[in-house]
Amino acid sequence: xxxxxxxxxxxxxxxxxxxxxxxxxxxxxxxxxxxxxxxxxxxxxxxxxxxxxxxxxxxxxxxxxxxxxxxxxxxxxxxxxxxxxxxxxxxxxxxxxxxxxxxxxxxxxxxxxxxxxxxxxxxxxxxxxxxxxxxxxxxxxxxxxxxxxxxxxxxxxxxxxxxxxxxxxxxxxxxxxxxxxxxxxxxxxxxxxxxx
Length: 196
Ligand code: GLN
Known about the structure:
The chain is α/β, with parallel strands linked by helices. The chain has five helices and twelve strands. The chain has one domain: Class I glutamine amidotransferase (GATase) domain (Rossmann fold). The longest helix has 16 residues. The radius of gyration is 15 Å and the shape is globular. The protein starts with a strand and ends with a helix.
């Protein structure tokens, strides 16, 4: 049973916790540095990346979390969580946190100018059948480094990406009853444990 943290400072963390528990993970809500001890994976949820940045600083979690990520912890960022994990953030606040865990450039609220929220069915690599995706003021991925794999695209843009130990989604996979994208993350955590 993998020990998976869910950053629980703000946003849609409860739905991630529920989904990971249902998949059999040993789940820890991460609010303070000591909650990082012993984790094998960590989910950074959707919400508001600027607010999450403020709370990471005020809770004292920013530096220990950065150290954990830099030392190889497997991480999955959804929506605002993807923004926090990306190397470059466009239309962000100057002082917002980037953990630079995945070589991607993302633009905040990029889909929000046309429609605030929308849903669509995605073809996701290695999954049988479409995955219903919910986008809420979602960030768009505008550039990827060469080591980053695209698992799903929508309208010609990547929306689900993966590198050796990082997954990131523009959408909210925790808000539907489908657990397959979370299963992919647990598979990535297991593959990382095998090489660590
Ligand atoms: N627009 C939010 C941000 O910039 C992300 C939206 C979300 O997580 N649903 O942080």
